[in-house]
Structure of M18 family aminopeptidase:
Amino acid sequence: MSDSLTDLQRFLAASPTPFHAVQEMVERLEKSGFKSLDERDSWDLKASGRYFTLRNGSSIVAWVMPEESDLATSGMRMVGAHTDSPCLKVKPEPDIHRHGYQQLGVEVYGGVLLNPWFDRDLSMAGRVNYRAVDGSRQSALINFEKPVAVIPSLAIHLDREANKSRSINAQTYLPVITGQGEEKASFKQLLKQRLLEQGADDVGDVLDYEIVLYDTQQPSLVGLNEEFLVSARLDNLLSCFMGLQGLLSSDLTQGCLLVCNDHEEVGSMSAAGAQGPMLQQVLERIAPDAEERIRMIQHSMMISADNAHGIHPNFADKHDANHGPLLNAGPVIKINANQRYATNSETSAAFRDMAEQVDVPVQAFVVRSDMGCGSTIGPITASELGVKTIDIGVPQFAMHSIREMAGTRDIMDLTKVLTKFFNEKAV
């Protein structure tokens, strides 16, 4: 097992929320000499400078200024991914007390495959905003780490049709059990207690929070020859990690940029999402002159990295017969005639050429003509910036499940192509 796969497993385990994922990325960037910039401050960008900036603590843009070349003529090599994953999110007033059980109400975030959430050892993590003892407002990341909740299935004896037709009512079936007690518990008090345990000794009152549930099972290498990585949140922390690895493995002499946005799973329409102005505003500060910026964008290319649907051997009829990507057979170019993906022949050809140069096979995915097609940040970014874009990703199984599966060879291969892309002299 390579050191990179070991590091990937650590990254996934340490990133139960977008906030934690961005924190992990920041640590890796800082170790490689990248400097943090606050959007509220004035920026003084230097040639060869390495920088990153955050928004909402859940989206990040990291970039490298070129050594000598003019950005207006050399462009930026851009890779985009997203930090969020479908999950269950704790409601604002979540406390439920029924039949002596303490429960929390949850709402569904994104297109969650709900069945696998039952009978799992769940923990909680996220961001807490609180009033400090000195009266100031502060925020902190929180992670309970150990299993603290569960959604038990109803026994088949009480639902004999469960294996045939059980549907899930998100309002009534999903409140998680966190314990037992005679009286209703206070979730905010629980958060305060955990913050104190984590060492935040300035907590006065918890004002609000963004807390999600997550599976405590660690990422695993699976298969007789460890061909597969199985983990939560592969969609799309896997692309965030590969994009970051590609950037840090490059020679860091070209104009390069990695953007990882929050809120893709719910449409990207937020201040920190791909449909928001974050990337555009960063580019305006990188190239303040409007004409030079337009020239830069037209010399640039965006690789939108988000996992693809691998052909499932038990459900092969869900794929177009000629477009069923196999795990460990190479990264996938995603194509859609109706622009659900931003790929065109020019960007596809560029990606194929780079992959061939580093001896990486490439596959193509087109959804069945009688099925709807999902989308990515690719078309959003392409339309917002006017930059030529391609949608790619590694093939995976169980997309949007609490536990997903991808091929280990594909991870290494796509990282090689992204590294090659960041080193390109011209795009």
